[in-house]
Amino acid sequence: MSDQVKYVLDEAQIPKAWYNLNADFPKPMPAVLHPGTHQPIGPSDLEPLFPMDLILQEVSTERYIEIPEPVRDVFRMWRPAPLIRARRLEKLLDTPAKIYFKYEGVSPAGSHKPNTAVPQAWYNKEAGIKRLSTETGAGQWGSSLAFAGSLFGIDVTVFQVRVSYDQKPYRRALMETYGARCVASPSNETEAGRAVLAKDPNSPGSLGMAISEAVEIAAKDPAVKYALGSVLNHVMLHQTIIGEETIRQFELANDDPDVVIGCAGGGSNFAGLCFPYLGLQLRGGRSRRFIAVEPAACPTLTRGKYAYDFGDTAHLTPLMKMHTLGSTFMPPGFHAGGLRYHGMGAMVSHAYELGLIEARSYQQRGCFEAGVQFARCEGIVPAPESTHAVRCAIDEALRCKAEGKAETIVFNLSGHGHFDMQAYINFFEGKLVDLDYDEAALAQSLAGLPSIAA
């Protein structure tokens, strides 16, 4: 078995509980604040948006939270996801490092997002909810919630960031195939959208803007709840099924990672792989390096400020302390649409602030180069978001080569790029250019952060 490539668990070994890093943080996370009073929010403040079971998960400090059996039953459609040794990539790089990837593109929607879409839809169904509103960037989250809604009889409306809506028509078609309604954001369907269009009729949109529209729909209609695909604590919690499986699969491989990598926009796929390993470390296990990889054109961790901010552009959400570029920041229209978010999830931000994880940023052309190199070795075309993790894993493997170190590297291949081929076409035709954010606009956005007393 010395040349084994895939490490696969049986369906009976799907984890029965999610792991909650809030139980093991050495310092508690800062409170989430009400946008009006600036006082810590309570469950009642979130009830217009979420069912109570998800609210309780959002504030929980229990180490493990049971995965409901109906949710595990749906997970059997694609979980456990494989852990794969990238032996051909190792050979090409001529590195002493061992490179593994956890492949989340095996889900029906093609990414890690159904790991939280399914439980969110199920908890809403149990609460009697028939309609959900949400936002999406590249469309991986929107198609995942559409898929979950189709399983549980829930109508889903998705506000997709305009630049991605135009770039990725096949993602839109996938959402509609699952029965969801997809609306380009900013739109004329909400006050928040109309306000943006009045200033800029050609606005490319942003995830913060799309969140505003989806939250507004839910806040104004008691029959509608809101679902978010990243950023929030309960989303990070649901994604830890990735890392819990990976820990067991490395036992099968008789190996253990030294470096754990994930791309990071809101932080959910990074958290999903890394948090269970970070929990082991915080409970006395051995040290590892955890690297969150973000786009240089939207560098939330590496350039953002750790401060209280709104999660959306129209300031309808509670205030979270997070690494942020400012809620009005409008990133350029690079192809990794799922990473075009102004803030990083509060749990990931807290871990970074405590020095528990590292952060790195890359421009998109170098990421696509890595994605193509990976595809030609391992056969899987990564999503543009995932190419950031591939780029970092290759760089770490080359570092090991230069240093003569045989380290073990694992990264989360969070989704395939089959609906993102226009981006690859642009890359091959030389039309994909590295984009920089506007420094003056960033300074203005950061200057507008809410004033919160320490």
TrEMBL record:
GO terms for molecular function: L-serine hydro-lyase (adding indole, L-tryptophan-forming) activity; pyridoxal phosphate binding; tryptophan synthase activity. Belongs to the TrpB family. GO terms for cellular component: cytoplasm. InterPro entries: Trp_synth_b-like, Trp_synth_b_CS, Trp_synth_beta/beta-like, TrpB-like_PALP, TrpB-like_PALP_sf. Its cofactor is pyridoxal 5'-phosphate. It comes from Rhodopseudomonas rhenobacensis. This is tryptophan synthase. It is an enzyme of class 4 (lyase). It catalyses: (1S,2R)-1-C-(indol-3-yl)glycerol 3-phosphate + L-serine = D-glyceraldehyde 3-phosphate + L-tryptophan + H2O. Its EC number is 4.2.1.20. Tetramer of two alpha and two beta chains.
